[in-house]
Amino acid sequence: MKKVFCKLAISSIALFTLSLPNGNVLAAEKGEEKPVSIKGVESQVHTVFANETTGVKSNLGGGEFTAQFVNDFRNVKMNVKTYKSWSSFKRVSDNIATGSKGGSITANKTVTFTTTVSGSISGLGISTAGSVASSKGYTLNVGANKRVYMAYRVRYNVEEGYNCRKDIVTGKCVSKKKYVVKKPMYGEYALKNY
């Protein structure tokens, strides 16, 4: 069998390994410029560099190898805008009807608002953690001759935009999907007429 010698120039990694289709392996340590013997390869010789990403193509033992990116696509945000908005009210008490002297009302239920997501945020690294809840026992004064109940709402920090799947080689957006993320920051109680 013919012996083939390859010189591997390694500059950025401690150990470089290249598997060939016929099962042989090339390896060299950083800083070493020793030739590596490969048995059973009947083809031309190429010098392969550790950080090379294009152009190396060879037909060795009936198969081909090419340098490729591990992941050719990245998800990135596009056309992002942020703003604040209120949620709708949710009931946290029973009804009350006051007389001429007025009265008070106390929350006897709790409601929880969590982060809401519409659309796809996959690959964007957006956290969906966090929630805001009302408390039982919270009391509000009620004026005279009112028919009301207590309700609770939250203030959202809203982010909306497009989740763009970008080809990192060409820089082009190959697909995009709209997303909206609402994260609750704080809440407030209010009296609502019934």
From TrEMBL:
Keywords: Signal. The keyword Signal applies. This is Uncharacterized protein. Residues 1-27 form the signal peptide.
